[in-house]
Amino acid sequence: MDNITTIFKEKKLKLTPQRIAVYMYLRSTKEHPSAETVYKALHKDYPTMSLATVYKALKTLVEVNLVTELNVGEGNFRYDGQTAPHPHIQCISCGKVDDIEGISFDELNDSIKDYTDFQVLSNKIYFYGLCNECKDQYNYENGY
Ligand SMILES: [Zn+2]
Ligand SMILES: [Zn+2]
User: Fold this and answer.
1) What is the pLDDT confidence band of residue 116, given thresholds at 50, 70 and 90?
2) Cα of 120 to ligand 2 centre, how many Å?
3) Quick one: which ligand is closest to 100's CA?
4) Which GO terms describe its biological process (predicted)?
5) Is 137 annotated as a binding residue?
């Protein structure tokens, strides 16, 4: 909460109740929700907040680095209130996105230096698989 107040003040942005609500919701969940999911989750408490407002709030929060935008393919964006770099894994069956905790791939930035002229600043690691709820069904249907 202090974080968002300070950052918005620094950037001279208006800290609206909607922006706070979107941020607090993302901080409170590990689900990596889409804009639609955020909209639905906040609709009960903020019945006048439109989907467009949610999109705008997310865009602003991403711009000031309080929220990370994940492109999970097909123009499908998910939002993460955890901005420290961490790898993700997505279920190819239901689309659920999970954090992978306790491992860092920062050393990768160093190891690829010999393969590029670029100055390497960061990387994004994405794994794909089957979540606990989906793997039995998937393996059954695909004969694994
Ligand atoms: Zn799944
Ligand atoms: Zn995450």
Assistant:
1) very high
2) 22
3) 2
4) negative regulation of DNA-templated transcription; regulation of secondary metabolite biosynthetic process
5) no
Q: With b meaning 16 or more CB within 10 Å and e meaning fewer, what string describes 58-82?
A: bebbbeeebbbebebeeeeebbbbe
Q: Same structural domain for residues 63 and 89?
A: no
pLDDT in tens, 67-97: 999 987 777 899 999 888 899 999 999 989 9
pLDDT, position 99: 93
Q: Is 134 annotated as a binding residue?
A: yes
Q: Near ion ligand 2, which residues have CB within 5 Å?
A: 80, 82, 99
Q: Which CATH number covers residue 22?
A: 1.10.10.10
Q: Which ligand is nearest to the CA of 81?
A: 2
CA 18 to centroid of ligand 2, rounded, Å: 22
Q: Is 126 helix (H, G, I), strand (E, B) or coil?
A: strand
Q: Both tokens of residue 81?
A: 């209130």
